Amino acid sequence: MNTRTRLLHNGWLWMLLGSLLTMMAYWPGLHGGYVFDDYPNIVNNANLQIDELTVPKLAQAAMSSPSSDLKRPLASISFALNHVATGLDPFAMKLTNLALHLLNGLLFFVLGRLLLLRAAHASGASPAATLAAPLAALLACGWMLLPINLSSVLYVVQRMESLAQLFVLLGLLGYLAGRQRMTTAPLKGLLICALSLIGMTALGLMAKETAVLLPLYAAILEWLLLGGQR
């Protein structure tokens, strides 16, 4: 394999380029202001606007969201931490959202690469395994630039969705790790799977209720790709 081919098959290089392109695409929007539900959840939410990191203040901020009966405490705490650092500056809030979006893109890449490698090995298509990394990077970069994700970055309060996505992706990665471990240590693998699904779903629900879909996604992976592996 020559140098050019190695570069073309380097998923991490494509992820770097895709991340830079995503930053360029979103950068102008970071200078915008607050909109819609940003006001009741952040701008007009005095309980969220803490100025010191103490347990009582963080607890106060955690339970301040009017968006849901579950209060989405992890998302509220993240907004409160932003306020401690930079006040109500919307640029800093949106920059944090962008960083979280890029992190999710990286996890999407790792998850996609693992799934494509597993699919290639299951089908016996060894040459296809060499394409797993660049294809996973292409999918991840496409997802990062997908227009529907615009709101999760530039609509500050929608960090709730990005945080839920973070825990869903971590849960799926943990589930895959557990399924792999089952081949040599069934009980340990089962424990990893259970902890990944239960723990990450619980944490995700503290950001937004969409994280409840994590077990369904794991079931779909089991049905499409992992079924039949003991």
The CA-CA distance between the termini, in Å, is 36 Å
Integer average pLDDT: 90
* Poorly predicted residue ranges: none
Number of helices: 12
CA-atom Rg in angstroms: 20 Å
The proportion of residues forming helix, as a percent range, comes to over 70%
Question: Major beta sheet, specifics?
Answer: none
Q: What structural class results from the helix and strand content?
A: mainly alpha
State the total count of DSSP E strands. 0
Shape: globular
Q: H/E series, N to C?
A: HHHHHHHHHHHH
Beta-strand content estimate: under 5%
If you had to describe this structure to a student in words, what would you say it looks like?
With 230 residues, this protein is an all-alpha fold. 70% of the residues lie in helices and 0% in strands. The chain has helices at 3-8, 11-26, 38-43, 55-62, 73-86, 90-123, 126-129, 132-144, 150-154, 159-181, 186-205, 214-226. Helix 2 runs antiparallel to helix 6 (90-123), helix 2 (11-26) runs parallel beside helix 8 (132-144) and helix 10 packs across helix 12 (214-226). The longest helix has 34 residues, at 90-123. The protein is globular, with a radius of gyration of 20 Å. The mean pLDDT is 90.
